[in-house]
Amino acid sequence: MSDKNKQLSEVSDEPARPLWLREFSEQLSQHLSQLSDDEVPDTENPCDEKVQDERSTFDQDKQKWELARLRAELTSLEQDTKLRKAFAWAGYWMNIGWLVAILSLLFLSGFHCWRFSLPDSVLLALIGTTTTNVIGVLLIVMRYLFPKTSTK
């Protein structure tokens, strides 16, 4: 049979394609169906290994920087905690000293020890400022010790 007759005798539902293209596609599909996933030829680019190495190096560097940042943040938080404790104690002892001084003045003035007396207006001012100072210092220390944290 001639090629022309061969082409005419083969009738199919497919769109009109040359015979050589149909034969090639059949051979290709047979060949591909015979290949398993493990037999797929390695078509990796030799540069891919280099890129992968660079990515792993980048990831390692990124992890190192992240670890360094977290360590610095931890150190900062530890220092803040130490300073907050120190300031809390300083505020506490300052309030104690202030209260002792005011109570001493009130005692001396109230019992007229060593002829010490203060006018009533001065005593009222001392008691008022003492209350304000104690509350104010405690509020400042508490706000510093326990800051409002914003949620991100």
Question: Main traits of this protein?
Answer:
152 residues, mainly alpha, 4 helices, 75% helix
Could you characterize the architecture of this molecule?
- The chain is built from four helices and no strands.
- With 152 residues, it is mainly alpha-helical.
- Helix 3 (46-110) runs antiparallel to helix 4.
- It is rod-shaped and about 130 Å long.
Task: Describe, in short, the structure shown.
By secondary structure, the chain is an all-alpha fold. The chain contains four helices and no strands.
Largest sheet properties: none
Which bin fits the share of residues in helices?
over 70%
Q: What are the secondary-structure elements, in order, as H or E?
A: HHHH
- Oligomerization state: single chain
Q: Structural class, judged by helices and strands?
A: mainly alpha
- Overall 3D shape: rod-shaped
Gyration radius, in Å:
45 Å
Strand proportion, as a percent range, falls in: under 5%
Number of strands: 0
CA-to-CA gap between the ends? 80 Å
Low-confidence stretches: none
Tally of DSSP helical segments: 4
Overall pLDDT confidence? 80
Helix-strand layout with pairing:
Layout: H1 3-9, H2 19-34, H3 46-110, H4 120-145
Helix pairs in contact: 3-4
